[in-house]
Design brief:
Elements (H helix, E strand, L loop, with lengths): L1 E3 L12 E9 L2 E6 L3 E6 L13 E7 L2 E7 H4 L12 E7 L2 E7 L1 E9 L3 E2 L14 E7 L2 E6 L1 H5 L10
């Protein structure tokens, strides 16, 4: 399964509304700016890289480009699950670098008005990192956690981007 997504150079912060690709990690539903998404692929076991952090599963060859694959469950401290036929890799283009992120499943694409997005709650605990959460949106009965996937993927602890 491969789905290709069209892009524009606009960023979500400069528009009255933005489109988000929604996906699941366990019981939670997340959204990322659709403009960062290059394609969605079926999960295939990556080739492991020695001494890589546990959240980096390895690399895959994507039409001649070697792409690192990150398991967002591990990176975000969620419990591990077995990969199944719903598990997908969202291929992202972040600052000119192609990176794959493994998620439990992709839900849909939603257009959200900026005024429908609430600020992420401030947490004082050192164990809760909300730096990559840009907001929370209510969509019907669902709560959608909006994530700054570019900041997450390019963070120094990911080890995927040059400083």
């Amino acid at each position: 399964m491969t789905a290709v997504v069209a892009h524009s150079n606009e960023t979500a912060t400069h528009r009255a509304s933005a489109e988000y690709l929604t996906f699941r990690l366990g019981a939670e539903e997340y959204g990322i700016d659709i403009l960062r998404v290059q394609e969605i692929r079926s999960f295939e076991q990556p080739t492991r890289i020695a001494n890589a952090p546990s959240h980096i599963l390895g690399v895959v060859n994507l039409r001649g480009v070697i792409v690192p694959v990150v398991d967002l469950r591990i990176k975000l401290g969620c419990e591990r699950v077995e990969y199944n036929n719903l598990t997908v890799v969202i291929v992202l283009n972040v600052k000119g670098r192609i990176v794959g992120v493994v998620v439990d499943s992709v839900s849909d694409v939603l257009e959200l008005a900026r005024d429908a997005i609430r600020a992420a709650p401030e947490m004082t605990s050192a164990t809760v990192d909300t730096a990559f959460i840009t907001g929370i949106a209510s969509v019907g009965e669902r709560m959608l956690i909006l994530m700054d996937i570019e900041a997450l993927v390019s963070s120094p602890d990911m080890g995927l981007m040059d400083a």
